[in-house]
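Journal club prep, shared notes

We agreed each person brings one worked example of a sequence with its structure written out as tokens. Mine is Oxidoreductase. I'm keeping it raw so we can talk through how to read the token line rather than staring at a rendered picture. Sequence first:
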Amino acid sequence: MNYTGVREVEVVVIGAGQAGLAAAFHLRRVGYVPDRDFVVLDHSPRPGGAWQFRWPTLTFDKVHGMHALPGMELTGADPLRPSSEVIGAYFERYERTFGLRVHRPVSVTAVREGGGESPGPDAGKALGGGRLLVETSEGDYAGRALINATGTWDRPFWPRFPGQESFGGRQLHSSRYQGPEEFRGARVVVVGGGTSAVQQLTEIARVAAATTWVTRRPPVFREGPFGAEQGRAAVALVEERVRQGLPPQSVVSVTGLPMTEAVRRARESGVLERLPLFARLTPTGVSWEDGRTVEADAVLYATGFRPAIDHLAPLRLREPGGGIRMDGTRAQRDPRIHLVGYGPSASTIGAHRAGRAAAAGIGRLLAATEQPAEEEREWAGSLAS
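Then the structure, token by token:
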């Protein structure tokens, strides 16, 4: 669908991963109609959010903490089927069942004040001050509120080291990992202490000539069940950062690594013997300040992601600390903007709750700030002129 003019809706949802679909479900549940009152825009080629890009050997039984979308359980999945296929099919069925009418592939390039003026720190405090103009590859949308659910997949974090340009082997981020076979017979250094690093390292170790695991901090492995109390404590730590306007940490970064049977075997075999972060890359490997060296054919950076929110830059939502100060899911600088899948809602269970909270908050805001029809017509005319 291609729009030549500006299309007015009540709410624009950017992103159709776990958080975006949860938000769309709850908008629909409180009475908003898809493609009339709200629109869901997703830049991915097909349903599945970031899951559709996961490596083929990550089967569904290895998925860490996948929670169901609201209103529909994920049942009967083959545990040995790739998670990208299982979750992609589940998301597709979910979109179809609830008639969410996701527009894809659509890229959002910028979100700005509808009048084209640069907003100050108090912009948007009164909704009557203007709509939000969402510029996209299929035309522009004008919304009275926005739910941003763009996640992190599009912003892989690449650390910088001296000598990176001189390394003669292959360097790649874990987001481009396609399975262990591409490393058969190679000497591989894996950088990072998260779940993806451990999963990919244990796969690679079965076929590689040698593996080396390096992390910035000693990894913490979590034994036993992870209950509601531990989950609330972990979320609270992340929530405090975004409340202060600091860049968010992932929830997983404060929960520790789950001690699965596969992880236990890898530790016993020595695969998960960790070294501190090296100081530099050399033409043939990596080296430390104490003179230690490791020869390598490839360096895999499983170093995580950053929030994909560059399109929100015209709204000037960032604080001096580099993050967006949040009150729940709402950006404190502009109550029209809700971020789901950001900070404490970046986990799959958090995304569900955040989607519900964002839909409720926007519903209250729009109901309290209904614009007169004449003001709406004047606004539309100013855009057309």
